[in-house]
Amino acid sequence: MLINRFLRRGFCTAVARPWLFVGLGNPGDKYKGTRHNVGFEMIDAFAESQGISMNTVHCKATFGQGFVGDAPVLLAKPQTYMNLSGESTGPLAAYYKLPLNRVLVFHDDMGLPCGVLRLRHNGGHGGHNGLKSVMNNFRGNREFARLRIGIGRPPGQMDPKAFLLQKFNAIARERVSSKSLSKCVLQNLHSVVILRVPYITRNTFSAG
């Protein structure tokens, strides 16, 4: 693809340096619609809104590339399973020679109420195994942005792992539906790439 050739050869002075948006999740129908897969869902929503086809596989990820305005955007959903997400994210960033401040990882977060969004421009993994894998593949470097998508905490004494792999109930699903969270995400990320923000700060946006 033309965009791929330009970016790979380092034409980022002629073509705006791309953003890499990575959604974390688990592949397969078994995990579709679960709390742990909201990162995948947000990538799909962004791709659909921008007319970007996620129909190729690159660096162990379902992958799409396109433009928002004239700004190039790379979208990825690692197919390595959550705990090995870095085995896809790291090679993708390296392949396109991207600095980490052009990488944004979408992930679920039990530390936030369901439906709440928070953006961090860097930080630790907070016990999230997908983020931990990404950081490990960036050689411990934590200077990449992450969009925290609140899924709430498990009720009572429920095992957190079981909670993560459980599908949303009707109320929770409405809070993370494409009509609510995705709209906020899409509007703000569209502004980020169109306005060519050099990097994301914690105040770029939040919702909830």
From TrEMBL:
<comment type="similarity">
    <text>Belongs to the PTH family.</text>
</comment>
<dbReference type="InterPro" id="IPR001328">
    <property type="entry name" value="Pept_tRNA_hydro"/>
</dbReference>
<dbReference type="Pfam" id="PF01195">
    <property type="entry name" value="Pept_tRNA_hydro"/>
</dbReference>
<protein>
    <recommendedName>
        <fullName>Peptidyl-tRNA hydrolase</fullName>
    </recommendedName>
</protein>
<dbReference type="InterPro" id="IPR018171">
    <property type="entry name" value="Pept_tRNA_hydro_CS"/>
</dbReference>
<dbReference type="InterPro" id="IPR036416">
    <property type="entry name" value="Pept_tRNA_hydro_sf"/>
</dbReference>
<dbReference type="GO" id="GO:0004045">
    <property type="term" value="F:peptidyl-tRNA hydrolase activity"/>
</dbReference>
